[in-house]
């Protein structure tokens, strides 16, 4: 994902969002795309495909696993499931994120108040 | 490509293809679904499809990133592990240096020792088909054998030895090759029989000697490759040309191949020349060193059967020459050159060094455990961040391996210099023809040891950090896991103590034995005696001219300032001398088959400083007069006459079992003197019955000169005196004390080595004990502080803490003694006048350990006593 604009924050964020989405239930790539689109219309509107390298990377790290299953419309689709390691990573990343966003809020929010 | 590689590549291809297929299918599914949704929103089908593709982006590009993600996984992890390992080593330099040095010493020492064991006991000789190369010797039914034959037996084997494809004999010599102005004489071999075939080589140029030349026809010579290159510029036209050898013209008939090696006399063999053997059935001296090459493919039984048949044939053909049960015997190279005691010694040293390696590894494992407890939190955090147990294990293994591989590299360098040191300290520890280069087997040994060590380290460090303890470590801090560590470290202390005790016992015994050996009274004073070996006399010297030279030399030497005495001797103390059977007419049953015979000049006893117990020394009259006289030593007198005086009795030299060995010398000899016994066969060997005879003018062989004097410059003066008298001589001059010291070089070396090993082991054990107690003190700071605050006696605190290792040290010492007990027997072959169970030596070993253990625990325990409660309780 070297082509990705927005740098580390976005990259890490996409990881976190994917893990977050998968924490609720197993899902295929298209399903993840739809869900993310529904929640935030910005992030994936241009390059939906960039989700896939992210998924492969998370698989390679052992944070999610994949399995071919039949989808709702009776087609074979690859479903992704979060692993235990993935859950831990998500917790850690979320803590990190909260720390970061608190800091950002303190600075940005403090300037406005 | 091997099958395995094919399979791996095949599987790789399948995996890659599967990956591509899956990515394609998955992305296609995505596009289809997106298009379907677009259509549902009212787009025309082509439009819906195009929009979906647009929103997706470049499919190829994403696939490529996907591939990369998979590919990078493996390589990236390894690289990251190595980087991480290096970083953590840098962060803990003291630990890293300690661990690496310990293991490097262990690996270095054991590799060096293995190199020597390998070179001496395992590696084949550097000649073709070394297993078929044998030494032919003789064995007596009454005991004893010798790897040499009489000339008569040699001829018999040459004619009748069926299993021998070739048989030869040789003698080493030194001579000037080419013009006499050449600075150094060249070492060469006089050979008889099919010498080259026996050793297993073909000439590089020309041919070997033919039968007529071997019988002493026209003088011929074969040059060694090295000499041919350096002296004759590798001139191929040298064949047929005449060169001077020892001052006489010889025709060059051949050149030896470059790879020619002769294990019994290795190194710089410069040339071969024929040796003419004179066969006399009455001469039973085993002075012909017979080497042979067996027909290839013979089984061990066939060899044994053939040798037995050969011995039977010899006995029935020449009954007087062999008693029942006497016969021929084949020897291997290592049987001839490595005494069984020395072979045992090598294995013992190897075992000792392996124990050292074991202690080194145990210590490093202990260090790693300490590190592991310190890093437990780090590992727990990494695990909680999603590192799989496998991933953590892999990383810890990488660290262990890196550590041990660095240590192995260091250890190998160490081993190379250690082997050199071994050779320098113990010049005659190796048989001739030994190649001590590091070979693949040694390299494999070192790398194998270090890899195993590395894996073990990694596992030890990882073990407690993984699995069930992980949870405990995260939740309950470090308490639970640490107690497991402490137990393991107690086990290591026990192991180290046991090994240290084994080595200390060995070192104490060898040390005590060596102290006794050098304290032995040799019976004479070697300190002010200098030995002069004349070396090979020029060929124009007959026996008369030789004796004139010797008398002139003695005269000039005696006239030198500071010289008290000078005499002629056949051989040096501590080196091999001549043996002869002797009996007395009235007690034939007391006959001795091998009495030490020394043919000496008057003044020999005074020169060596051997006291005369009765009678008189030889005088000049005994040399010229015809009446045969002898001087015997006390061991001889005791054997034949108990306490009665041997003076004026008659002995029969060369008479054995009613037969005179040499009919020309069939006469009795009168005893005119008795000397004290001296240990001239070696400090560790009891004096044997010895007879001295006066040296007469026509005695064979070039004798040695012994000179007793006070001058420090004696060695140099003597050399110049000899060269001034005959410029062609290259004499070797050395004090007798050097000869004596050489004779104990091996026990000295063994003692030094085992002591060094023991010192190293006990040091490591001390470090281990120190480490355990120090960490206990560290862990219990609060508790100790509390106790002190509540009024505990500081001395009681010290004792309580120091007692921590008492159990493992005591158990280790006991186990060490138990392990040592059976090895005692092996050791006893190396001991001199001390029992392998000597209580004083064993007590000394245990005391050394106790002192080291006490010091190692006292230092941290004292720190415990100085804990300030105000500080420790606040922590």
Features:
heterodimer, A: 113 residues, alpha+beta, Arc Repressor Mutant, subunit A, three-stranded antiparallel beta sheet, 3 strands, 61% helix, disordered N terminus, B: 875 residues, 4 domains, eleven-stranded mixed beta sheet, six-stranded mixed beta barrel, 55% helix, 15% strand, extended
Molecular structure report:
The complex is a heterodimer of chains A (113) and B (875). Chain A is α+β, with helices and mostly antiparallel strands. Chain A has a single domain, classed as Arc Repressor Mutant, subunit A. Chain A contains 4 helices and 3 strands; from the N terminus they run αβααββα. Chain A has helices spanning 7-24, 29-39, 51-61, 84-112, and strands at residues 27-28, 64-70, 76-82. A 3-stranded antiparallel β-sheet of chain A has the order 1-3-2. In chain A, a hairpin with a 5-residue loop joins strand 2 (64-70) and strand 3. In chain A, helix 1 (7-24) packs across helix 3 and helix 1 (7-24) packs across helix 4 (84-112). Chain A is globular, with a radius of gyration of 16 Å. Chain B is of the alpha+beta class. Chain B folds into 4 domains: 79-127 and 340-477, no CATH class; 141-325, no CATH class; 478-521 and 741-875, no CATH class; 536-729, no CATH class. Helix content of chain B is 55%, strand content 15%. Chain B contains 27 helices and 24 strands. In chain B, strand 1 and strand 2 form a beta hairpin. The longest helix of chain B has 45 residues, at 340-384. Chain B is extended.
Quick summary:
The complex is a heterodimer of chains A (113) and B (875). Chain A is 61% helix and 14% strand.
User: How many beta-strand elements of chain A?
Assistant: 3
Radius of gyration of chain A: 16 Å
Largest interface: A-B, 33 and 31 residues
Largest sheet of chain A: 3 strands, antiparallel
Q: What multimeric state do the chains show?
A: heterodimer
What distance lies between the first and last C-alpha atoms of chain B, to the nearest angstrom? 64 Å
- CATH superfamily membership of chain A, which one? Winged helix-like DNA-binding domain superfamily/Winged helix DNA-binding domain
**What pattern of helices and strands is seen along the backbone of chain A?**
HEHHEEH
Measured as a percent range, the helix fraction of chain B is: 40-55%
Segments of chain B where pLDDT lies below 50 for 5+ residues?
Answer: 467-481
The strands making up the biggest β-sheet of chain A line up spatially as: 1-3-2
Number of helices of chain A: 4
Secondary-structure class of chain B: alpha+beta
Average of per-residue pLDDT values of chain A = 77
Number of domains as seen in the coordinates of chain A: 1
User: What is the radius of gyration of chain B computed over CA atoms, rounded to a whole number of angstroms?
Assistant: 39 Å
Question: Biggest sheet of chain B, in brief?
Answer: 11 strands, mixed
Bin the strand percentage of chain A. 5-15%
CATH fold node name of chain A: Arc Repressor Mutant, subunit A
Mean pLDDT of chain B: 80
């Amino acid at each position: 994902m070297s082509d990705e604009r927005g740098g580390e924050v976005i990259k890490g964020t996409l990881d976190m969002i994917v893990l977050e989405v998968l924490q609720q239930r197993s899902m295929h790539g298209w399903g993840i795309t739809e869900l993310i689109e529904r929640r935030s219309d910005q992030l994936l509107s241009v390059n939906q495909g960039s989700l896939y390298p992210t998924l492969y990377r998370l698989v390679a790290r052992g944070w999610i696993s994949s399995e071919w299953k039949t989808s709702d419309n009776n087609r074979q689709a690859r479903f992704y499931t979060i692993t235990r390691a993935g859950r831990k990573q998500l917790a850690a990343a979320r803590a990190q994120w909260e720390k970061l966003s608190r800091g950002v809020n303190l600075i940005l929010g403090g300037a406005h108040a | 490509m091997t099958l395995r590689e094919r399979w791996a590549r095949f599987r790789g291809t399948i995996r890659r293809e599967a990956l591509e297929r899956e990515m394609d299918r998955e992305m296609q599914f995505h596009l289809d679904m997106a298009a379907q949704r677009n259509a549902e929103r009212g787009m025309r089908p082509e439009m819906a499809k195009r929009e979906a593709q647009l929103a997706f982006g470049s499919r190829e590009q994403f696939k490529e990133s996907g591939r990369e993600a998979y590919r990078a996984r493996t390589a990236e992890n390894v690289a990251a592990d190595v980087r991480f390992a290096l970083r953590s080593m840098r962060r803990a330099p003291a630990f890293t240096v300690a661990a690496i040095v310990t293991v490097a010493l262990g690996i270095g020492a054991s590799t060096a020792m293995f190199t020597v064991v390998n070179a001496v006991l395992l590696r084949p000789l550097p000649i073709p088909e070394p297993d078929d190369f044998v030494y032919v010797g003789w064995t007596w039914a009454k005991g004893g054998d010798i790897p040499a034959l009489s000339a008569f037996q040699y001829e018999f084997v040459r004619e009748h030895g069926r299993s021998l494809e070739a048989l030869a004999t040789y003698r080493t010599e030194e001579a000037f090759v080419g013009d006499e102005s050449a600075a150094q004489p060249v070492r060469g071999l006089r050979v008889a029989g099919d010498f080259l075939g026996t050793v297993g080589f073909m000439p590089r140029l020309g041919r070997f000697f033919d039968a007529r030349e071997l019988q002493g026809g026209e003088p011929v010579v074969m040059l060694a490759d090295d000499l041919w290159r350096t002296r004759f510029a590798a001139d191929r036209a040298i064949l047929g040309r005449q060169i001077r050898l020892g001052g006489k013209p010889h025709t060059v008939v051949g050149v030896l191949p470059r790879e020619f090696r002769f294990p019994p006399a290795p190194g710089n063999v410069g040339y071969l020349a024929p040796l003419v053997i004179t066969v006399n059935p009455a001469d039973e001296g085993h002075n012909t060193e017979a080497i042979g090459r067996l027909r290839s493919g013979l089984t061990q039984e066939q060899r044994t059967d053939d040798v037995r048949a050969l011995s039977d044939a010899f006995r029935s053909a020449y009954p007087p020459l062999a008693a029942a049960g006497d016969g021929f015997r084949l020897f291997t190279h290592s049987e001839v050159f490595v005494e069984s005691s020395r072979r045992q010694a090598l294995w013992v040293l190897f075992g000792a060094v392996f124990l050292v390696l074991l202690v080194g590894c145990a210590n490093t494992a202990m260090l790693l455990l300490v590190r592991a407890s310190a890093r437990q939190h780090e590992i727990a955090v990494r695990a909680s961040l999603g590192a799989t147990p496998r991933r953590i294990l892999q990383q810890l293994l990488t660290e262990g391996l890196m550590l041990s591989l660095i240590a192995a590299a260091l250890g190998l360098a160490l081993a190379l210099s250690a082997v050199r040191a071994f050779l320098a300290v113990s010049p005659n520890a190796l048989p001739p023809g030994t190649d001590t280069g590091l070979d693949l087997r040694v390299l494999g040994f070192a790398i194998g040891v270090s890899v195993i060590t590395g894996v073990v380290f990694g596992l030890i460090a990882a073990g407690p950090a993984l699995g069930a303890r992980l949870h405990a470590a995260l939740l309950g801090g470090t308490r639970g896991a640490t107690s497991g560590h402490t137990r393991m470290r107690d086990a290591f202390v026990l192991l180290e103590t046991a090994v240290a005790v084994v080595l200390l016992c060995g070192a104490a015994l060898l040390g005590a034995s060596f102290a006794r050996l050098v304290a032995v009274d040799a019976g004479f004073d070697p300190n002010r005696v200098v030995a002069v070996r004349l070396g090979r006399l020029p060929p124009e010297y007959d026996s008369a001219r030789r004796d004139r030279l010797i008398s002139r030399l003695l005269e000039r030497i005696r006239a030198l300032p500071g010289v008290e005495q000078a005499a002629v001797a056949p051989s040096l103390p501590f080196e091999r001398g001549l043996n002869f059977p002797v009996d007395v007419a009235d007690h034939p049953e007391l006959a001795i088959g091998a009495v030490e015979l020394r043919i000496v000049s008057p003044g020999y006893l005074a020169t060596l400083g051997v006291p005369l117990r009765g009678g008189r020394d030889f005088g000049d009259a005994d040399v010229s007069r015809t009446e045969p006289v002898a001087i015997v030593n006390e061991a001889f007198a005791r054997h034949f006459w108990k306490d009665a005086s041997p003076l004026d009795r008659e002995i029969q030299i060369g008479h054995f079992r009613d037969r005179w060995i040499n009919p020309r010398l069939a006469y009795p000899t009168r005893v005119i003197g008795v000397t004290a016994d001296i240990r001239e066969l070696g400090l560790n060997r009891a004096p044997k019955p010895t007879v001295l005879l006066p040296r007469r003018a026509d005695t064979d062989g070039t004798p040695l000169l012994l000179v007793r004097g006070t001058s420090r410059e004696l060695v140099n003066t003597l050399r110049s005196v000899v060269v001034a008298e005959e410029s062609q001589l290259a004499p070797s001059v050395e004090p007798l004390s050097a000869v004596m010291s050489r004779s104990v070089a091996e026990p000295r070396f063994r003692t030094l080595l085992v002591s060094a090993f023991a010192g190293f082991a006990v040091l490591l054990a001390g470090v281990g004990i120190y480490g355990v107690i120090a960490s206990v003190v560290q862990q219990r700071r609060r508790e100790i502080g509390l106790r002190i605050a509540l009024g505990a006696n500081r001395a009681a605190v010290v004792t309580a803490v120091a007692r921590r290792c008492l159990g493992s040290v005591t158990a280790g010492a006991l186990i060490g003694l138990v392990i040592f007990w059976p090895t005692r027997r092996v050791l006893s072959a190396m001991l001199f006048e001390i029992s392998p169970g000597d209580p004083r030596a064993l007590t000394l070993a245990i005391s050394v350990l106790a002192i080291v253990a006490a010091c190692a625990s006292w230092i941290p325990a004292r720190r415990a006593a100085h804990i300030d409660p105000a500080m420790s309780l606040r922590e």
